[in-house]
């Protein structure tokens, strides 16, 4: 990482006054941001953008899938998935075909070219894992994964469950 990027990381690592009641949420944001930046750098080596590898991983594991199911498995909305599939198709990594049983459905399948990409993506993810966990022991890695899984469960349980808060100035608007 160059010195300018390190400076930015150092500056963004400071907890703003307004975030003092949410230090874990602020840390998650910072870590996720850095993880995505590094993943993007690594993925560029093989011609992918962040999240495209997640689509490919699903296709490599599951084979041909309906585009709507693929979006659900990856956790993307329909519009984002359509753009991602179009870019992967243009790069030659996926092929879209109409379903023979349901002409409204679009099936997405990995191409032979994407199979050659698989090992590279697996290697990149291993490097990213090593960069992220650094000198953590196996025990610390396990503990970190357990905590992250708990955080994910807590957050997933609240999706769609939150109520909009009323703001004092809302009535004046």
TrEMBL record:
Transmembrane segments: none annotated. SMART domains: HTH_MARR (SM00347). PROSITE patterns: HTH_MARR_1, HTH_MARR_2. Keywords: DNA-binding, Transcription, Transcription regulation. Residues 21-153 form the HTH marR-type domain. Gene3D superfamilies: Winged helix-like DNA-binding domain superfamily/Winged helix DNA-binding domain. PANTHER family: HTH-TYPE TRANSCRIPTIONAL REPRESSOR YETL, TRANSCRIPTIONAL REGULATOR, MARR FAMILY. This is HTH marR-type domain-containing protein. It comes from Streptomyces canarius. The lineage of its organism: Bacteria, Bacillati, Actinomycetota, Actinomycetes, Kitasatosporales.
